[in-house]
């Protein structure tokens, strides 16, 4: 059976690959859409993703997914949180590790929000993974902060894992499995 | 002559005081409006302020000002930039100084954008001030990163200056003077 296609408003190949690894189990796959993504500035990832998905749906007039994720470091008051991508592009992993020099509490969590906008409204699926920030980057897979995030239950960083293994632990894998559940229950979005 | 009132979508008393110190020279003052501020996530302050001002105008049906500002640190790739307020609330001045430990290049600039939305559209006024990040916080006036910003032409931080002196140098003072110029030329916004 051929997988049904849902559009996703991203050009991040890693995100697409990770989500597709999960969605194949329910007979779907995502493909990038050329929609500009209007992001609202909010401390809630849910708001950012839902709003962007609605905007993309209005532009495309087809069901569309937006995924937004953030890394929340406990000792830094949740920083970089909803602005993880901007922070990654400016101070990067090096800056993050500098902020955590001599900081004992390395606890952090990743959160992913998948928003699916369709003719019936917008559905929001979330996934969270707790873990710690490594002392040094390890691994070359994945993207973003993956080289310094070690999820609970593993001694590897996300960047040391294949997609399938990362998805077992990851925030994005969990959110994508929630999306699968919804698709199984309600069928193809329109 | 009594000053004409323009609404401003902020609850930050420092911003209001600084803008009013300039606006009195052209016969206006701003007063806080109870409009929720929808911020778009953009790397351009102009977009954030203009969009928020339009939203506030639509909600209030009266001319309204939004001021948005950011601190751009050269050695940090422009960080914290448009997310200065969020970064201040999480890692704070302490985090910023930690990122700059052993960094020789302390150059930074503050930028302020004042957007005025009215029945004729939206006007955007900007002001920039170049300077350096101090080694340690000094002074207790102002707000945000003021204790660590030393503008070119002074040896004081913004937090060591009275409002009037800060306005002579500051990004916000410059943007407010641009607004004054516009108000003198076009009269009260409707």
Helix content of chain A: 25-40%
Strand content of chain A: 25-35%
Structural class of chain A: alpha/beta
* Mean pLDDT over all positions of chain A: 94
The main β sheet of chain A shows up as:
7 strands, mixed
Total DSSP E strands of chain A: 8
CATH fold-level assignment of chain A: Maf protein
The low-confidence parts of chain A are none
Shape of chain A: globular
Binding site for substrate (chains A, B): 10-15, 69, 143-146, 166, 171-172
Organism (chains A, B): Hyperthermus butylicus (strain DSM 5456 / JCM 9403 / PLM1-5)
Active site (chains A, B): 68
GO biological process, one term (chains A, B): nucleotide metabolic process
Could you walk me through the main structural features you see in this protein, from its secondary elements to its overall organization?
- Chains A, B: It comes from Hyperthermus butylicus (strain DSM 5456 / JCM 9403 / PLM1-5).
- Chains A, B: Keywords: Hydrolase, Magnesium, Metal-binding, Nucleotide metabolism, Nucleotide-binding.
- Chains A, B: Its EC number is 3.6.1.66.
- The structure is a homodimer of 190-residue chains.
- The first copy, chain A, is of the alpha/beta class.
- Chain A has a single domain, classed as Maf protein.
- In chain A, 34% of the residues lie in helices and 28% in strands.
- In chain A, helix 1 (13-23) packs across helix 5, helix 1 (13-23) packs across helix 6 (171-186) and helix 5 (163-169) crosses helix 6 (171-186).
- The longest helix of chain A has 16 residues, at 45-60.
Topology:
2 copies of one chain form a homodimer.
Chain A: E1 4-8, H1 13-23, E2 28-32, E3 39-41, H2 45-60, E4 64-73, E5 80-81, H3 84-90, H4 92-99, E6 107-118, E7 121-133, E8 149-151, H5 163-169, H6 171-186
Parallel strand pairs in A: 1-2, 1-4
Antiparallel strand pairs in A: 4-5, 4-6, 6-7, 7-8
Catalytic activity (chains A, B): XTP + H2O = XMP + diphosphate + H(+); dITP + H2O = dIMP + diphosphate + H(+); ITP + H2O = IMP + diphosphate + H(+)
EC number (chains A, B): 3.6.1.66
Active site (chains A, B): 68
């Amino acid at each position: 059976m051929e997988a049904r296609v849902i559009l996703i408003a991203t050009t991040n190949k890693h995100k697409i690959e990770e989500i597709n690894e999960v969605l194949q189990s329910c007979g779907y796959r995502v493909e990038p859409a050329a929609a500009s993504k209007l992001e609202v500035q909010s401390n809630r990832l849910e708001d950012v993703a839902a709003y962007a998905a609605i905007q993309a749906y209005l532009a495309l007039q087809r069901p569309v997914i937006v995924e937004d994720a953030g890394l929340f470091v406990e000792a830094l008051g949740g920083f970089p949180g909803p602005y993880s991508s901007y922070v990654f592009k400016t101070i990067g992993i090096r800056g993050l590790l500098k902020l955590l020099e001599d900081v004992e509490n390395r606890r952090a969590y990743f959160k992913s929000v998948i928003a699916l906008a369709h003719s019936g409204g917008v559905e929001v699926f979330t996934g969270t993974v707790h873990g710690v920030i490594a002392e040094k980057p390890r691994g070359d897979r994945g993207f973003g902060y993956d080289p310094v995030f070690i999820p609970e239950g593993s001694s590897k960083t996300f960047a040391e894992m294949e997609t399938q293994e990362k998805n077992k632990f990851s925030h994005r894998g969990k959110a994508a499995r929630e999306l699968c559940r919804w698709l199984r229950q309600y069928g193809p979005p329109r």
